[in-house]
Amino acid sequence: MSVVLTGNNLTVETVVAVARNGEKVELHPDAIERIKTCRKMVERKIAAGETMYGINTGIGEFSETKLKDDEVLAFQKYLIYNHSAGIGKPAPVEHVRGAMLGRANVHSNGHSAVRIEMTQMLVSMLNAGVTPVVCEKGSVGASGDLAPMSMIALVVMGEGEAWFEGNRYPGKEALALGGLKPLELQARDGLALINGSNLLTAISALNIYDMNRWLKQAEITAAMSLEALYANLTPYEDKVHTVRGFAGSLRSARAIRKCIAGSDLSTGKTPQKVQDAYSMRSTPQVIGAAHDAIAHARKQVETELNGVGDNPLFFPEEDMVLTGANFQGTPVSLPMEMAGTSITMVSVLSERRLNRLLNPALSVGLPPFLAEKPGLYSGHMLSQYTAGMLITEQRILSAPAAVASIPAAADQEDFVSMGMNTSLKNCQILENACGILGIEMIAAAQALDFRSHEFGKGVQTAYKVIRKYVEHLGEDRPLYPDHNRMSEVVQSGEILEEVEKAVGSLEDGEQR
Question: Which of 278, 458, 476, 485 has the lowest tally of Cβ within 10 angstroms?
């Protein structure tokens, strides 16, 4: 079933469906009509000789330069050429597809004065699997993601390079393989293709999706460690969290209880301390705060996905053209800074629980470092070193880019969002977080091997998936294959999917 673009219906999940899973796309008839109506208005104004930014003027510091009639069309081509100024390795295909989807949805609102052929080309490229090769770095996240979006526009023109069926081709050749022909840019078309923060927003949407799934796996992992450490479950009662009032905290406490439901811990058969350390009893408050941060970021990202990030803006009903700064990436980059920081915060919590599993002074009778023969074997001692290294990198990456503006364009663009830096470092934060969580999962599974009480249904399910990939550590062996394998398992979401099959969604309070 296709995703039908209306200008106001994109969600994080629909971005994932198209960008990552190859869902087909089409334009709603009303969106097509809005695009055509807006285009007619601007064509009338061009014919009348009205001065409009980026159409018959230069851009940025050259905005006061009036273009001659015979320069208007050539300007759009040169605009794309000189803005294709990125650097670095190609961005992942899913990031570029997400940006193309977002840009087509911006056009669907009917305020960009682009020709319908341009928007339809973006849609056709998505459906044909033609994905422009885009340098990962170069955007400052204001005036849009100009450098990367220009590399998309190059392929629309039959230039640049593109991926098709996993291979890299010259742009024109890739289009031909997809059954498409290049388009020639006319007045306004070039700027309408590039003047929005669509790439950083697409990356943020994909990250939001992955962050939510990662946090649910953090709750599963916490439940495993709590089982292994004979945790007191009183801090997970609803009343503790409803009296304070944070939605994320209540959600997290319920998710962890669902994973532990049926355990001897939950029935009181297993002896417990009166009160546990913060890394155990504060887990719902910490993961809950991350849920709340990511919920806010999702709201901002989805607003941007369905808003008109462009300049200038065209209003056909009022016959009006307004210039502004709706390309500014700060409304997305600022909450995404908090989202990334929240993943780092929960990663630190994970490492602290790992420490309690490994430290014989804190592990409630577990062998030192979970080793079968402590002294001869070191068990998982070095796993904590690796987690610590990743944590340190997380902290460095959590330094905000959103306050790191560097002026450009002769100070015409004297404040920029640096939102692309935010998006890219969040990708690395997530990658590291999967490694950290995977290490705690391995240790928790090892710890459960030393316990004999009945575990919760969710915990048992997670344990079984882990044991598909990582064997119990008896005699010491190199651990890096286990670490890398579990990081990949966390990224895949297999444990989450199996646990939710067993106990129900971790986003609601119902139990199966």
Answer: 278
Taking the C-alpha atoms of residue 324 and residue 310, their distance in angstroms, rounded to an integer, is 8
d(CA 433, CA 336): 16
* DSSP designation for 493: T
| pLDDT at position 412 over 90 | no
Burial (0-12, 13-18, 19+ Cβ within 10 Å), 207: buried
Q: Which residue has the tokens 């811990």?
A: 265
Residue 21 has a CB neighbour count (10 Å cut-off) of 9
Phi and psi at residue 168, to the nearest 5°: -105, 125
Helices and strands per DSSP (H, E), number in the chain: 20, 9
Residues 144/198, Cβ–Cβ less than 8 Å:
yes
Nearest-angstrom CA–CA distance, 451 and 190: 64
Q: Which two tokens stand for residue 421?
A: 């830096």
Q: Which residues are catalytic?
A: 53
CA atoms of 510 and 512, how far apart (whole Å): 7
Per-residue confidence (pLDDT) for residue 510, from 0 to 100: 45
Least confident span in 247-256, 258-267, 465-474: 258-267
Q: How far apart are CA 51 and CA 61, in angstroms?
A: 16
Handedness of CA 360, 363, 367, 370 (dihedral sign): negative
Given the DSSP bridges, would you call strands 3-5 and 87-90 parallel, antiparallel or unpaired?
Answer: unpaired
Which DSSP letter does residue 418 get?
-
Residue 392: count of CB within 10 angstroms of its CB: 11
**385-411 confidence digits (pLDDT tens):** 999 999 999 999 999 998 887 787 766
Q: Of 326, 376, 341, give the one whose Cα is nearest residue 197.
A: 326
Distance separating the N- and C-terminal Cα atoms of the chain? 31
Q: Which two tokens stand for residue 16?
A: 């994932």
For 3-196, CATH gives 1.10.275.10
396 CB burial (10 A radius; 0-12, 13-18, 19+): exposed
Domain-wise residue ranges, the chain: 3-196, 204-403+418-503
Fold of 204-403+418-503: Fumarase C; Chain A, domain 2 (1.20.200)
320 phi and psi angles, rounded to 5 deg: -130, 140
The DSSP call for residue 143 is S
pLDDT at residue 61, as a whole number? 67
Question: Angle, to 10 degrees, between the axis of helix 116-128 and the axis of helix 93-108?
Answer: 150
Q: In the structure encoding, which two tokens stand for residue 55, read together?
A: 């159409």
Residue, of 56 and 410, whose pLDDT is higher = 56
Residue 87 and residue 133 in contact, taking contact as beta carbons nearer than 8 Å: no
Q: CA 240 to CA 260: how far, in whole Å? A: 18
Angle at 51 between CA 48 and CA 55, to 5 degrees: 100
